[in-house]
Design brief:
Number of helices: 10
Helix content: 40-55%
Distance between the termini: 80 Å
Shape: globular
Radius of gyration: 22 Å
Order of helices and strands: HEHEHEHEHEEHEHEHEHEH
Largest sheet: 8 strands, parallel, barrel
Strand content: 15-25%
Structural class: alpha/beta
Length: 345
């Protein structure tokens, strides 16, 4: 009898654990699918403020005039106004590499793009891996004031080369990082004094309040930013690009619903004087954090339009950001043009 009783207890315990694990996931999945339902407002199409990330090949000698001409044909009729060209990376102390030879090619690229696409701006994409632990190596430490000063000097350097702006991508960025805000407080005026544009790429916003604390405690990686911190960053820059990919979600409907939610949260936090750009996944890697069959451009664009429709369909300072040129497919471009980016022939 005791053995049977313990067996029943074990079954009930297993059932309870299963319910506790499955029920929240089921509720979350249902909520995301609901976010993906409905029709987008017809006015939620490109505002001509979209951006496109370009790899380092454009400034290291691997691209030529024929490539720029092809890029011009590719972008014709889309809403892409800004190109974020990988012109770094930064050294771990915030400086540009002393052996960097991209400056002459950067000037060539900027001139070539302006000939083919005179209304498109070319920005220097700078970034590095961030480290936080006192004994951590192999990355940039924002708590180091000298490193922050060096990043500002690097920004001045690329602007002197002719870039229209500085696009900063520092990861992983922990929410409420005051050193990051201190950097932006110095970087913004330095860029603006030279007539440049300051933009940043940042992580997603907590889908549930405080979730970045939970992920940090469980995994050591704070995947999300608080909505409040996202807003603090947005107020300090001209453009903020939310990297709305690498979600780990397994289905298009879940991913699209998640993008709709992220769009709404980002719109709530971004003031009227900042361009908000939602990232589109123009890449197809497979892994635990990214399922290409789920994270499609089609689902992302639909999610962006639904979120915009519900929160602020008339907002002008809004766009999408396409990541990345060297992994994009014809299907990606077709989905972007069809769903969001076509402005004409």
């Amino acid at each position: 009898m005791a053995r049977q009783r313990w067996k029943r207890v074990g079954k009930w315990a297993a059932w309870t654990v299963a319910v506790l694990l499955v029920l929240p996931l089921t509720v979350a999945a249902t909520a995301l699918r609901a976010q993906y339902a409905g029709a987008a407002a017809p006015e939620t199409t490109t505002r001509g403020r979209d951006a496109f990330w370009l790899g380092h090949a454009w400034v290291d000698g691997r691209r030529d005039d024929a490539d720029v001409a092809a890029l011009g044909r590719r972008l014709k009729g889309t809403g892409i106004r800004d190109l974020y060209v990988h012109a770094g990376p930064l050294e771990h102390n915030g400086t540009l590499p002393p052996t960097r030879r991209s400056a002459p090619r950067a000037r060539w690229l900027i001139a070539a793009v302006h000939r083919v696409l005179p209304s498109v701006r070319v920005h220097a994409w700078l970034g590095d891996r961030l480290v936080y632990a006192p004994d951590a190596h192999g990355g940039l430490r924002l708590s180091d004031a000298a490193a922050r000063t060096a990043i500002v000097a690097s920004a001045r350097q690329v602007l002197a080369e002719g870039f229209a702006g500085v696009h900063l991508d520092l990861e992983p960025l922990h929410s409420d990082n005051q050193d990051y805000l201190r950097l932006l407080d110095r970087l913004g005026p330095a860029v603006h004094r030279r007539g440049g544009v300051l933009s940043v790429a940042v992580h997603q916003i907590d889908p549930l309040p405080g979730l970045h604390h939970v992920s940090g405690a469980l995994t050591g990686h704070r995947k999300w930013l608080s909505q409040r911190f996202f807003g603090q960053v947005a107020r300090r820059v001209d453009q903020i690009a939310l990297m709305s990919y690498d979600t780990g979600l397994p289905a298009e409907s879940l991913y699209g619903g998640y993008v709709a939610q992220q769009t709404r949260l980002a719109l709530e936090a971004t003031g009227p004087h900042t361009d908000l750009l939602m990232g589109l996944p123009f890449f197809h890697t497979e892994g635990i954090g990214h399922h290409a069959s789920a994270e499609t451009v089609r689902a992302a664009v639909r999610g962006v339009r639904l979120g915009l429709s519900r929160e602020d369909p008339g907002r002008r300072r809004f766009g999408t950001a396409l990541y990345v040129d060297f992994a994009a497919t014809e299907e990606d471009w077709a989905a972007y043009r069809r769903g969001w980016g076509a402005t004409g022939s």
